[in-house]
Amino acid sequence: MNIKNYINGEFIKPTSNEWIDNYNPSNGEVYGQIPNSSKADVENAYIAAKAAFPSWSQTTLEERSRILIKISELLEANLERFAEAESKDNGKPISLAKTVDIPRAASNFRFFGNAITQFASESHESAGENAINYTLRQPIGVVGCISPWNLPLYLFTWKIAPAIASGNCVVAKPSEVTPLTAYLLGEICDEAGLPKGVLNIVHGLGTTTGQAIVEHPDIKAISFTGGTATGAHIAKVAAPMFKKLSLELGGKNPNIIFADCDYDDMLNTTIRSSFANQGQICLCGSRIFVDSSIYEKFKADFVEKIKQLKVGHPSDSDTNIGALVSKPHLEKVKTYIEVAKEENGKILCGGNKVTVKNYENGYYLEPTVIEAPSDECRVNQEEIFGPVVTIMPFDNEDEVLQMANKVKYGLSATLWTNDLKRTMRMSNQLQAGIVWVNTWMMRDLRTPFGGVKASGVGREGGFEALRFFTEPKNICIKY
Ligand code: TXE
After folding, report:
1. What number of CA atoms fall less than 13 Å from residue 45's CA on the CB side?
2. Tens digit of pLDDT for each residue in 169-223?
């Protein structure tokens, strides 16, 4: 299967005619090719976007909203096809793609299709001076959206939907590791009547295609989700050009469990927050801290439940854990298991590659739990981004708070307790952009989403995203 770029409403080959192999993680085989796009392809995408901008930015809110909602409906109507594609490209269980990834991509378009009709700007009356200020929120122009491989269509559309809803035109690049659903999205946009050039999708490597988007002098804003090192590099390139930047980067999130929690709910949710999507979600609670009074019980119950999880082919309906996204990523995650052993971590379960019958070359790994000797060891400090969690006991609130905050990241945190005062104290002090109490990954799309410290800058979600993709202009009138 050959994927093409989607530029000015047409599917076209890269100008250089260079291609990259696309792998199926469930069997390790190449099943298609994607464009290795160059600067010239990005330039073509930019020219199309620029030409579409005057008309799209003047299109009524009602019409923009109608098209976004139509895209959402078409995604829902094509749920099976998109879920199959996402699962094949990424290795995630098809059941997950069907219930989470694709429905959420559809929700992103519906949500921002509605949100744009409710978005408003401010006015300030300067009392006693006979003046009034009103603030326009104008679209920026051509913006760049760059997304990762873990939640391919989900995160791609989380950027594109608010960008086009607010009147911008987009040059977008999905991860080269998972390009398929982004490619299919082009067809849907056409069918929904999105005018040519409003959304342009360019495929290729980060260091060439992605870099060309970030470096482009007239792409005025970059919304990026991916690794922290890449985020730092992008900031370095974009800052001297004074581009608007939204960076959603890595995490090493604490999952803090107090003895007074609802135990069964906590246990079941902790399995999900540890291993959903093979642990490849920036929000996963990869560091589990447990009240020492229930530590031994939790450890036994958790490990027993994890041993029951089925690692298998993504299309099997009873598979809990599919394949990791790529061979290099599997190797990286396995290296961390060796690091844990060298650091005197105890592997309580998992740790090995899994051979799935008939798919012997797939990238499967057992869900792994490491009892960590210290919160400062590498497996407790560095983002592993796979089906690997650490567990450690704690004796009191101050101790766990200190350990929770002693990492360079600050994306999310989960807290399990029924003590209201403790909830308030801890939530105030946890260094994170998102704190979940007695739940995990419960998302209301109106809320601000993003991290602090090395987890990024800026917030996505709701009106925050619409503010990011618009430029405020204040007009002061004296009367
Ligand atoms: O991310 P990259 P990768 C973390 C996770 C993972 C690591 C690397 O720890 O192991 O990042 O994953 C594009 N200019 N997360 O390699 O490289 C790239 O092509 C412009 C956390 O996938 O950051 C892709 O489209 N673009 C995370 C996107 O950036 C560039 C989710 C992300 O790639 C570029 C995924 C450049 N110079 C990984 N270099 C999360 N927080 O959700 C790369 N890209």
Report:
1. 35
2. 999 999 999 999 999 999 999 999 999 999 999 999 999 999 999 999 999 999 9
Q: Which residues contact 179 (CB under 8 A, 6 or more apart)?
A: 3, 22, 34, 89, 152, 203
* pLDDT tens profile 400-427: 999 999 999 999 999 999 999 999 999 9
Going from the Cα of 147 to the center of ligand 1, the distance in angstroms, rounded, reads: 7
- Please check the confidence at residue 283 and state whether its pLDDT lies above 90: yes
Average pLDDT over residues 74-87: 98
Asked whether residue 236 carries a pLDDT value surpassing 90, the answer given is yes
Would you give the end-to-end CA distance of the chain in angstroms?
Answer: 64
Q: What is the rounded distance in angstroms from the CA atom of residue 116 to the CA atom of residue 65? A: 7
> For the chain, which domains are there?
5-249+455-478 (3.40.605.10), 254-444 (3.40.309.10)
Q: Which residue's CA is the closest to the ligand 1 atom numbered 14?
A: 211
State the distance from the centre of ligand 1 to the C-alpha of 225, rounded, in angstroms: 7
User: How far, CA to CA in Å, does 123 sit from each of 73, 127, 136, 359?
Assistant: 36, 12, 9, 62
Residues with CB under 6 A from ligand 1: 146-150, 173, 175-176, 206-207, 210-211, 214, 225-227, 230, 233-234, 248-250, 282, 383, 385
**Cα–Cα separations (whole angstroms), residue 469 to 110, 169, 245:** 17, 10, 10
Of 84, 86, 176, 248, which is the active-site residue? Answer: 248
- Find the 231 Cα to ligand 1 centroid distance in Å: 8
Alpha-carbon span 102 to 78, nearest angstrom: 9
Model confidence at 1: pLDDT above 90: no
Atom of ligand 1 nearest to the CA of 233: 37
CA 230 to ligand 1 centroid distance, Å: 6
- Told to judge if 248 belongs to the known catalytic residues of this protein, a careful annotator would answer yes
Closest residue (by CA) to atom 43 of ligand 1? Answer: 206
